[in-house]
Amino acid sequence: MVGQTVQSESMEQKINETHTASLGEFELAKEARTIANQELKELKKISSEVHQLLRELESKIKSS
Questions:
Q1: How far is 40 from 42, CA to CA, in rounded Å?
Q2: pLDDT-based confidence at 64, cuts 50/70/90?
Q3: CA nearest to 23, candidates 63, 31, 56
Q4: What is the pTM of this model?
Q5: Short-list 5, 8, 4, CA closest to 16
Q6: How far apart are CA 26 and CA 33, in angstroms?
Q7: What is the C-alpha R_g of the chain?
Q8: Residue 48, pLDDT above cutoff 70
Q9: Residue 1 in 3-state DSSP?
Q10: Distance between CA 33 and CA 13 in Å, rounded?
Q11: Run of H or E residues at 64
């Protein structure tokens, strides 16, 4: 009986540790996703600006 209690407590501790670690990893993943979304937004803006500059250059070249 004592052995079962010790084994049960050990299993409960492992479950709690795994749960805590999983929550920590989930928070890190959410943070990484937020950063990635911000970086993607910035890259799209840069890409749009580069395309606009290319269009302007092409029109200047055609008009010269």
A1: 5
A2: confident
A3: 31
A4: 0.67
A5: 8
A6: 10
A7: 28
A8: yes
A9: coil
A10: 30
A11: none
Position 51: which residue type? H
Segment 20-33 shows an average pLDDT of 98
Beta-strand ranges (E) seen in the chain are none
Query: What CA–CA distance (Å, rounded) separates 35 from 42?
Result: 11
Is 54 exposed, middle or buried (CB count within 10 Å of its CB: 0-12, 13-18, 19+)?
exposed
Tokens of 58: 């092409």
CA–CA distance, 9 with 7 (Å, rounded to integer): 5
Identify how many contiguous H helices and E strands the chain contains and give both numbers.
1, 0
Report the distance separating Cα 33 and Cα 5, nearest Å.
42
